[in-house]
Amino acid sequence: MQRARAFITTIILLGAFGGPSVFAQARHYAIDPAAASVNLSWRMLGISTSQAGFSRVSGDIQLDEQNALHDRIVVNIPVSSLEADNPLLTAMLKSAGFFNQPAYPRVTFTSSRVLPVGGGNYRVFGSLQIRDVVRPVILLATLKPQASPGPASGRVAFSAVTAIYRSAFGMTKLLGAAADKIDITIAINAASREAAG
């Protein structure tokens, strides 16, 4: 059971993975938008920290026991859900100088591989698309057993952290005042589509 829980969790970690599977058939999971969030933080003028967050995160996951290369997930993050410390900052982050919500309404993450590193921790490789730019990213993820009863219940949960440099995605406005590096924390809960059906 522990091995099964660990494996399903690595798959739920935003990814389509290569590697052995323990399932007898393909399974489908959906990220619960009511129980998922992506939070951002960065330094302002080197002396304070600003924060913003996304909600209504969704995604579809397919796990194929016969061929792990078919395992796949796409996670969609609606830019419209972005909320920052104050309304002015929220509006600025959605503007053309940053996420440019009118032209690019979604941020998308697609995973490619996961590696267990022990202690319920995983290194997840994938690509992140912001605006019209796609860059590789690595998530450091951890199973949350207290909130994740395992595949038998049809739900799993995890937390993850990573960091990006916004200039790599074309967001270069106010680099002198706001840091280039953005720290990201993720909380995801996913439900089996079979259990929901």
Characterization of the model:
By secondary structure, the protein is mainly β. It has one domain (2-196): Lipid/polyisoprenoid-binding, YceI-like (Lipocalin). It has helices at 2-12, 87-94, 193-196, and strands spanning 27-31, 37-44, 48-54, 58-63, 72-78, 83-84, 106-118, 121-130, 133-143, 155-165, 181-192. The chain has an 8-stranded antiparallel β-barrel. A hairpin with a 2-residue loop joins strand 7 (106-118) and strand 8 (121-130). The longest helix has 11 residues, at 2-12. Residues 1-24 have low confidence and may be disordered.
**In the CATH hierarchy, what is the class?**
Mainly Beta
Strand order of the largest sheet: 1-4-5-7-8-9-10-11
CATH architecture grouping: Beta Barrel
SSE pattern: HEEEEEEHEEEEEH
Q: Please give the alpha-carbon distance between the first and last residues.
A: 24 Å
The overall pLDDT, averaged over residues, is: 79
Overall helicity: 10-25%
List its traits.
197 residues; Lipocalin; 3 helices; 47% strand
Q: Which helices and strands appear, and what pairs or packs with what?
A:
Layout: H1 2-12, E1 27-31, E2 37-44, E3 48-54, E4 58-63, E5 72-78, E6 83-84, H2 87-94, E7 106-118, E8 121-130, E9 133-143, E10 155-165, E11 181-192, H3 193-196
Antiparallel strand pairs: 1-4, 1-11, 2-3, 2-11, 3-6, 4-5, 5-7, 7-8, 8-9, 9-10, 10-11
